[in-house]
Amino acid sequence: xxxxxxxxxxxxxxxxxxxxxxxxxxxxxxxxxxxxxxxxxxxxxxxxxxxxxxxxxxxxxxxxxxxxxxxxxxxxxxxxxxxxxxxxxxxxxxxxxxxxxxxxxxxxxxxxxxxxxxxxxxxxxxxxxxxxxxxxxxxxxxxxxxxxxxxxxxxxxxxxxxxxxxxxxxxxxxxxxxxxxxxxxxxxxxxxxxxxxxxxxxxxxxxxxxxxxxxxxxxxxxxxxxxxxxxx
Length: 232
Prior knowledge:
By secondary structure, the chain is an alpha+beta fold. The protein is 35% helix and 34% strand. The chain has helices at 2-16, 42-52, 62-74, 102-108, 133-139, 146-149, 161-172, 176-181, 215-220, and strands spanning 18-28, 31-40, 80-89, 92-99, 117-119, 123-128, 184-190, 195-199, 202-205, 208-214, 225-231. Strands 3-4-2-1-7-10-9 form a seven-stranded mixed beta sheet. It has a four-stranded antiparallel beta sheet with strand order 5-6-11-8, with no helix packed on it. Helix 1 crosses helix 3. It starts with a helix and ends with a strand.
């Protein structure tokens, strides 16, 4: 239980205090791969180290343990293979894996009949709002933990960004709000054809597009996060 709490707290801070870039490659027939670069803001590393004083000694850093725990969760999904993670130093990490089918992947992770991703032979779309957020919680268990939920969109519906950051200031100190507002999630998408249409994202090449959003937009989810790409 103590190790689980360590992973949970680290993942809460990882979500709020990171620069995350994911390379999502679709290879046809629902197959593909994911490669994620993670940079954790130094402020949140300091917070984790302070928290670590209350936990049993561990040879691994708290972030190393958190990333390893995340990779271990992925290892239990049959649609996922070739799972790798690496600590690059200076608070930088990578996590990569291949998947055989997006629908199967999300279903096995708990999001049955999911509406987050829609993949056809020549299109991919993503849509997340407060109405289907429960599907994401099913697929990513730490989001459903009571310790995280108070930071997430369901508990903070209608809260302004200013009020939310005031709450973070009270909970984490004066450096917390800036660390959160600096947090960005970027998804670079590669598709098996020439892109003919895209919405909610930027076309960056013949078969590549980029989708990005501030992490605070996810934490509040006052507007939907969505993109779509079509190719031939």
